[in-house]
Amino acid sequence: MIDDNTLVSVVTADPMDALVLAPRLRKPDVAEVTALGKTPLQALMCSFDLPNSKVYSILETQSNREYSKIIAMFGVSDSVEVPEYGVPWMLAADKLENYSRPFLRYCREWIEEIHKDYEVLYNMVHCKNNQGMRWLQWCGFEIKTQRKYGAGGENFYLFLREKKDV
Question: CA Rg, the chain, in Å?
């Protein structure tokens, strides 16, 4: 609950959520998926077809509306190269920034949730996505090497997070 009228929640995603979110992605997210050679819709839809994928939507529900708005989608899937490793991702609308405090409060719990089945989480982040890199570091990921990646051969950074020994 954000206030008396607004609830932000996480639910299992439906492919229809991708259709709704795709045209409203943040500019850095659009730049990142474009550099990978995909449209926003392709990037969101392909997440449902990845090995052992778990895909979630973040919804904004206001009491004066009959429907919820999809403000972000995120998930994880098995790495094709190393199945014990997971590949997390997140794409969002600008509207997510309206809920930055609760998002930051709960996102670490979700990182732990998607990390529980994998020894390592890793992916690539576009070199110009400074906000994304700061968030990844705040969530316990390390930003590693930079390399050319994707369809356009643009610079990306490898990020990873190893499971902590208990």
Answer: 16
Instruction: Give tens-digit pLDDT for 96-135.
Output: 988 888 788 888 899 999 999 999 999 999 999 999 999 9
DSSP strand pairing (120-126 vs 68-78): unpaired
Structure tokens at 78: 């098995």
User: Which pTM does this prediction carry?
Assistant: 0.91
Contacts of 65 (CB under 8 A, 6+ apart): none
- Dihedral of the CA atoms 74, 80, 86, 90 (nearest 10)? -20
The CATH classification number of 6-121 equals 3.40.630
CB of 143 closer than 8 Å to CB of 137: yes
HSE (CB half, 13 Å, CA atoms) of 143? 17
Tell me the pairing of strands 120-126 and 85-92. parallel
Task: Band the pLDDT of 67: cuts 50, 70, 90.
Answer: confident
CB 86 within 8 A of CB 115: yes
CA–CA dist 157, 166 (Å, integer):
28
